[in-house]
Amino acid sequence: MMDRARLGLLLVMFAALATPGLAAPYAALVMDARTGKVLHSRNADTRLHPASLTKMMTLYVAFEAIRRGEISLDTKVKISRKAAAEQPSKLGLRAGSRIALRYLIRAAAVKSANDAATAIGEAVSGSEAAFARRMTRTGKALGMTKTTFKNAHGLTERGHMSTARDMSILGRHLLYDYPQYYNLFSRQSTNAGLAQVYNTNRKFLRAYRGADGIKTGYTRAAGFNLVASAERGNERVIATMFGGSSTAARNARVAELLDMGFKRAPSNVAVRKPRRPAYQGSAKMSPKVIKVKPTITAVTSSLRPTPRPGAVPSDELLLALVEDVEKNVKTARDEAQVTREPRAPLVTPIKRPRDLGQLALVPPKPRETEPRVITRATTSGGRHWSITLGYHVTRYDAERVLLQTALQEIETLDDALRKVANKPRGWEANFVGLTADRAQLACARLSARGVNCETRGPAG
Description:
- The chain has 2 domains: 11-264, 3-Layer(aba) Sandwich (Beta-lactamase); 290-303 and 375-460, Sporulation related repeat (Alpha-Beta Plaits, 2-Layer Sandwich).
- α2 (54-67) runs parallel beside α5 and α4 (101-111) packs across α5 (114-125).
- The chain is α+β, with helices and mostly antiparallel strands.
- The protein is built from 15 helices and 13 strands.
- A hairpin with a 2-residue loop joins β8 (223-232) and β9.
- The strands form 4 sheets. Strands 2-1-9-8-7 form a 5-stranded antiparallel sheet, with helices on both faces. It has a 4-stranded antiparallel sheet with strand order 11-12-10-13, with helices on one face. A two-stranded antiparallel ribbon has the order 3-4.
- Helix content is 38%, strand content 17%.
């Protein structure tokens, strides 16, 4: 006779797999995250209510804004009445209060707080409506062809629709475009400033081996939705489901979908990361991804940052720059102590001037050897690799990023040339004239610090 525990388990599985019992239209897709190949789909292109899966795009756009310098994690966001009045789930923000953006991101990712999501949208784009339009443009650039966003939180609204395929595409981009933030989605709990919040997906994260994200969603119109990602060995699978009848039924079905994915995915396959889309911050910009082949050309002007017209640096700014130099050189020296080979020279720290007058008046010490005049970036000896640190709003921003990065990575970037190029997507910051090994090492070390970088060979 079957024992009660086994009978109960079978009843739960039967209830979870019975499609007629789903509360909303059912859709599912399973994807090999490494390649983007679809391993299973059902109604994957049916437009349905995404519920709080919406917050995946809210966070993606926020990460994009941080990367481009539009806003920072430490920005104090003023909470509007609209954000404070959002329906639960919510963090409990009060109108007129201020809170750091990092806490809003944590609350939206972990607790799925609607008030935090609205506050993020208003902080980035000025209003939730403008932010929703940016979300839709970004989605189109990612390949989410059947998705339209009307708000930042996912509560049911006419025209606010997506598909299982589109949400799987978005989940893959979150994983590969912003790996430095991806750990948010696997946190069982986190400090959100006002309170310790707990993950809405923690039951699934605890129950399924290898699961590390991504996002749950529920409204009466949508049912119980989930985009889940799991990694086992060399394999990573993303499974998306719309229309579950309960949390338990949804989790059981998604576990089955992930199991199916791991069975069908090859054990060893080359990872083909998705291409990051063109910047979609301005409504005037085309959503088409512009591919630009980088070239190394003659240096026709000084790479020294050009002062802004009429701008005279203040004493406070000069002091801040000196302190920043000291901090970055100290970081480089500490890392050299840990990673350097025997007999490798240590980095000598820069001495702080006694007063600010020295910084402006004392000329630089001449080199002992004759300086080498560089007329063009050489490609001899294999030094035809470069790394790019992305696009920036102004030339000043790009040059500042290059200078700070060079100080952080003195060991690997000491011989590199700094180059700023005016591209359709903004001012591109590059280090050129590197060997393949040096470029890859520098980019790996910068990525470990959370700096977005990309290596480029002679063919781009």
